[in-house]
Specification:
The protein is α/β, with parallel strands linked by helices. The chain has three domains: about 5-180, 3-Layer(aba) Sandwich (Rossmann fold), CATH 3.40.50; about 195-350, TPP-binding domain (Rossmann fold); about 365-560, 3-Layer(aba) Sandwich (Rossmann fold), CATH 3.40.50.970. The chain is about 40% helix and about 15% strand. The protein has helices spanning about 5-15, 30-40, 50-65, 75-90, 105-110, 120-125, 140-150, 165-170, 195-205, 215-220, 225-235, 260-265, 320-335, 340-365, 375-385, 400-405, 425-440, 450-455, 460-465, 505-510, 520-535; strands at about 20-25, 45, 70-75, 95-100, 130-135, 160-165, 210-215, 240, 270-275, 295-300, 315-320, 390-395, 415, 440-445, 470-475, 485, 490, 515-520, 540-545. The strands form four sheets. It has a six-stranded parallel sheet, sandwiched between helices. Helix 2 (about 30-40) links the parallel strand 1 and strand 2 (about 45). The longest helix has 26 residues, at about 340-365. The chain is globular, with a radius of gyration of 25 Å.
Length: about 575
Amino acid sequence: MAEEMNGAQLLVESLLANGVKNVYGLVGIPVTDVARLMELKGIDFYGFRREDAAVEAAAIAGYLTGRPGFALTVSAPGFLNGLVALKEATQNCFPMVLMSGSSDRALVDMDRGEYEGLDQYNVAKPLCKASYRIDKPEDVGLGVARAIRTAMTGRPGGVYLDLPGEMLGEICDLDDPMSTIQVPVDPAPAMEPSDEAIARAVEVLRSAKQPAILIGKGAAYAKAEDQIRDFVESTNIPFVPMSMAKGVIPDGHKSSAAAARSLALGQSDVIILMGARLNWLLSNGASPKPFGKDVKFIQIDIDGEEIDSNRHIAAPLVGDMVSVLKKFVPAVKASGYKAPQEWLDQIAAKRAANEEKMNERYEAGRNREPMGFYGALLPIKELIAEHPDTYLVSEGANTLDMGRNVIDILQPRHRLDTGTWGVMGVGLPYAVGAAVETGRPVIALEGDSAFGFDGMEMDTICRYNLPVTVVIANNAGVYNGIDHKIGDETIKQHVPTYLGFSHYEKISEAFGGNAYEVHNATEMAQALKEAYESGKPTIINAILGEKMGAESGHIGHLNPVVFHEGMEGYVAPKPKTK
C-alpha cells in the first residue's frame, strides 16, 4: 500500500513535479508547515516582511523565466496584502500563482466569525486571470496544473489558488496519492497568424514612407530579441522601445529612435506595435500626440481582444511574438521593403541634435552642487555600460523617468520597473526576484518616497545575502522637498509630503549590509564601484538638492486641476518662456 499523504504533502510534490525551485512568501497560520515541508523537499522558500513584496518577487520571477512564479501567504489579511500585487501582475501580463491558506469554509460561508475568515476565492476572481479553490487533497495535483496552464496560456497573468487549512491537513483517500499529480503538456502553445494576415501586414508596410517600430515588454517577455533585431537590421526601420523593452535591441543601436521619439511616433505613417499596448502609457493611441491622425498600425499581440482597443488596427497579427515574426520577417524580406533613406536621415538628424543637448546637460549636471539627478544617474549608466549583464530595477516619479532617459540597457529583460499600473513598492521585491532567479547583480534605483513603500525588504536582501545595491535618489520629499509659498507666507510641505534628508543607509547597516551617504557624482561613482565589486547588500543614499524634481515626474498632466484662480491662497503660475 502506498504511503499516506495529506494535502500539504501533495502540494509540495506537485510543485516539485512541475519544476518549481523557489517560492516567495510570508508564513503563519495555516501555511507555516507547508513552507517548512518545501524546504525539507528542496524548494527554496524566501521569507519576506510583507506579503505584497513576496507576490511582486514571484511576479517578476515569472516575467524573467517565462514560467509562473509562486507566492505563499496566510489567510485573510495576508491574502489581501498580496492581492494588489496579484492584480498588478495580471495587468503587467506576468505569469504567477498566489497560494493562500484560508479558513474553515462552513464557518466562513455562514459568517460565524471564523479566525481570519474571508471568502478569498470569490474576492480574488475579478482581480486575476482565474481563481481556483482546492477542497480535497486528491484535487491538489489538478489545481496546481490548472493554475500553471492558466497563468501561461494566451496572455500571461496572475492566478489565485485557495488552500483551505482543513484540506492541507486532510489525508488523501486514494491508495496511490502520487498518481494525482499532473504536469501540464505544452501550457503555452505556439500561436501563429494566418497567411492572409501576414500578406495584409506586408502590404500595409510596403505603403509606408515613414515607418517606425514600437517595442513593448510583451516582446521582451516572449524572448523575441533575435527575430526583432533581424527584422530591424534587414529593413532599417527606426524603433522606439517602451521602458521595460529597453535592451531587446541594445540602446544606442543605429536604428534606435529613442532620442527622436516625438518625431518617430508623431510623423510615422505606419507603426508596427510589437508587444506594446495602446494604453495610458501611449496616451491610449491619441493624436496629434503621440501619434499622427492618419497613421496605420500593424499590431502583433497574443490577445485578439487587444486589437482595436483604442485605435483602428489596419493589420492585426494575433499570435505569440516568436511565431508571428517567424512568418512576418521572411515575408517582409521577400518583398524587398526597406525604410526610405529620406526618413532615416530625418530621424538621424533629430536624434543627433537631441543627443547633443542631452550630453551638454549631462556634463553640466555631473558636477552640479548640490547634486542633481544626473550626478546620481550617470555613474549607474557608466557601470552598466561596463557590466551589461547587470539588472536595473527602477521606481519613483522623477527617479524613474530620468533614469529611463539616461541609463542605457544593453541586454533584454534587464530593466524592470513599475510597469502598466505604475505601482510604488516594487523596487526591492523585484530586486530580490531578479537576484534569486538570475544570480546576477542588481541595482535598485529608488526615489526616496518609493523606497518607503517596501524599504524593510532590505532585511530580506541582507538575510539572503543577495548582490543588490539600492541607490536612493534623496531629494527630501515626494517629488521634491522644497517648501512653497501662498501669498507672502512660506508653507511647510505636507502635500506632497516633506520627508527630509533621512539616513536611509542606516537601514542597511541595521541588517548587516554596507552603507554609503554620497553628496556628489565622484562620491557616487566610488561608492557604486565598491558596492558592485563587493557583491554584498548595500544602500547608497544619494543626497540631492531639495529643489530637484517636478510634480509627478513626466506625468504631472494626469493630475486634475483643482486648485485654481478664485480659491483662497491661489498664486498664479509663472508663464512658461521658450
